[in-house]
Amino acid sequence: MGDIRIYCPKCHWEPDGGAYWQCSYCDTVWNTFDTAARCPGCGFQYKYTQCIEHKGGCTGESLHLDWYHVTDDVFNEKHHTEKQLK
Ligand SMILES: [Zn+2]
Ligand SMILES: [Zn+2]
What we know:
This protein is α+β, with helices and mostly antiparallel strands. It has one helix at residues 73-85; strands at 4-6, 21-22, 29-30, 48-50, 61-63, 68-70.
């Protein structure tokens, strides 16, 4: 089993733990990955998560679950080797 990594499925931007998401119902600002896209203010469960463009992401919006990626160990080793060769 690999680890779970969180990044935008469209541009691969990785959230850095900041509170960049604002609820459109109660204006709470929080880190949506702390709560699996559930607003801590009003409890609304978001299905989609917006990428954060001003932090280096894109303007896309993706299914929250699509942000979670299980890393493949074989791929990681290959990736690691390629990095070392450079
Ligand atoms: Zn809310
Ligand atoms: Zn993105």
